[in-house]
Each structure stands twice: as structure tokens, then as C-alpha cells.
Amino acid sequence: MAWLGLALLVGLLLCLRQPLLVVLGAVAGYAHLVFGDGRLTDIAVDVWDAANKDVLLAIPLFMLAGNLMARGVMAARLIRLLRALAGPVPGGLAMATVLACALFAAVSGSGTVTMLAIGAVMYPALLAAGHPREFALGALCSAGTLGVIIPPSIPLILYGVMTRTSITDLFLAGVGPGLLLTALLTVYAGVRNGVRIAGQWDAAEIRAALVAGSWALLMPVIILGGIYSGRFTATESAAVAVVYALVVEMAVYRELDFAGLRAVVADTTALLGALFPVLMFALSLNIFLTYAQVPDAVVAWLDALVTSPLAFLLGVNLLLLAVGCLMDIGSAILIFAPMLAPLAVAQGIDPVHFGIIMVVNLEIGYLTPPVGMNLIVATSAYSEEFRVVCRAVVPFVLVLLAGLLIVSLWPGLSLFLVR
Length: 419
Known about the structure:
The chain is mostly helical. It has 22 helices and no strands. It has one domain. Helix 1 (2-15) runs antiparallel to helix 2 and helix 6 (92-108) runs parallel beside helix 8 (133-144).
């Protein structure tokens, strides 16, 4: 009866369209009252234990660094360089769009920020070059999701926190799949627009763009090089990213003033105000479930049903693709990662590899209605109808699904830098 009461409580809150924070808070309270020691004060203790993690500092710091680059000119200078290099290639402007998103993702950690920062410059450029509007929308929405898997990645940090997996290992594991997905999208963009040539190579423009963008190009080298060499932890690299972005935007390029800095800090704070309370309640519930040995019981139950790791991966991929249609990536990781990761380990799947599989699945959720984040943001940012944006991303989703299949079946792609 206790479990039935929990199911009815969750169902009622969902029917009333309550936010995830309310649902998680109610579930945590119910669990402590009914299954625990009956003290709601235990929630406060668990929340404090959950918040008392240095690695959580990486999330606001990477978000702040990405917003600083988007508000300043670092993103625009990266785009200028890639346009100079790839523009004259058949389909080069479309390919430059994907590559610019991948490069910006390597320092921003956010899919939506990547799409908006690159799209502000590349969307009108693609239209001016004669590319179909739907292709431009689809390319920016899909390539913007690369910020979810290319390290540093905020979803990978969330997965690491929720499953106690090394975030440095997850960042290393994201390199191979990130390059694969970038390559697939770049090739598709080039093939689809192979007859479009924007112009000729201009050595002077390439040199000028390289000089202008040199400071921006150094950022991913410093951040990722520091992480992979072991000189920085994930949290320290995030702090370095913020300091570097501040110095370059305000002292070197001098395109960001104190008024702009205040706006960036305010925007980042608003996003964190929505994310962190949910994260704390999710971590509190995770601590309770672990103490109550619920994951162990679920692993034992599923182990009796699933006959092979391949069958497990097929079922999990279908589940997560469905979840991505209905939930944002942060909420999905907070809820499903603690439940699914132990099941994957029980099936002999490396927890780091499984983290990559999970994030790639939910990355595609950015492009699937009804709650695909990039679809919703693109509808507003580019003043397009929602159905038009949905139709535009269909071929790109198929490309990403092919990438997901490769990532799922080829563990070495994720683990070659880790093991």
C-alpha cells in the first residue's frame, strides 16, 4: 500500500502540472516519512550532504564561461576563422556552421548556449548564401546539441555527480563520440550542399581571422589540455575558463563592459536558481534510495529478466529516447541515472561508457517534440513556427541516431582515452 500511495501522489502532482521541484520534494518527503525514520528533518541533512561537493561548482562556472563568450565576441571570431577556412569548399558554409558549434561547445558546455551564440551569426549568413531556411534551422538546432556531449559538458557533470562516476573520465570518454557526431553532421551538411560554393580562399583573410581569433582558439586548448593532462580537475578547469573568458573579453578584446558583465551574471544566476533546488532534492532522494538498498533490489529483479547486455542496451536506448521527448536533459539525468547506472554495471557495461550512451540519447531529446529544448528556443530565436522547426531537424535526427547506434555498440570509441 505504501508504494501505491507513492504512485498516486506522483500521478496527482503530474496531473496538476506541478514543476519537477515540487514532485521531487514531495517524493523525498513521502519516502522519509513512510519508508524512513519518519523525520522530515532528514531531508535537510541529505540536501546539505548533497550540496557539500566541490564538483558542483563546475556547473555554474561553465555556464558563466559559456554566457561570457556568447555575450562577447569570442564566438564571432571563431566563426570568422572557420568561414575563412571552410567557406570556399563545396557546402563549406554549412560545414563551417557545424564545426563552429563543435568548437564553441568545447568551452561552453551547453547545447542551447551553443546554438544561440553560433546561430546569431551563421543563421543569417546561411540564408544570405541561398541555403534553404529549413536546412539552416536543422543544422543549427542539431549542431547546437554537440555542446551536450563534447567536453566540458554540464550533463556529463550531472551524470557523474548522480552516479559517483569520475567526471574527468566522463570528459575523456566524450571526446570520441563527440568527434564522431561532429564528423557525421559535417559530412551530411557537406553532401547535402555540395553544389554550393561561397567563394575562393583568401590568404589575407585567413591570416587576419587567425590573428583575430587566436585568443579564442587558445581557450579549448588550455581548458581541455589542463583536464586531460591531469593539471586541472573539472572544477578547477571551470574556474580557469571563467577567468580566461573575463580577461579576453574585457581586457584583450574590450568588447564586454561592466554593464554587460552584470547582465551575464544575472542570466546565469537565474538559470542556476531553477536548476540547483531540483538537483539538491534529487540528490537527497538518491541518498535515501541508496541507504534503503532500492537500487540493489531493482538490479536483482532486472537481472532475472534481461538475458544479455545487448537486449539491455536496446531497451535502455528506446526508453531514453522516449524520455527525451518528454523531459529536459537535466531532469532526466537526475531521475534516471541513479536507477539505470547500477543496472548497466550489473550487465557488465562500463559505467563511463553507459554515461556517454545516456547523454547521447538525451542529446537527441533536444530535437524531439514536445519538449525538445533546442526546438522551443529556435522557434523564439528565429521567429519560426514550431512545426517548421520540427520538420527541419528530421534528417539530422536520423544522422544522430546512426551515431547513437555506433556509440552504443562500440565501447572502445568512448573508452580509448580512459582505459
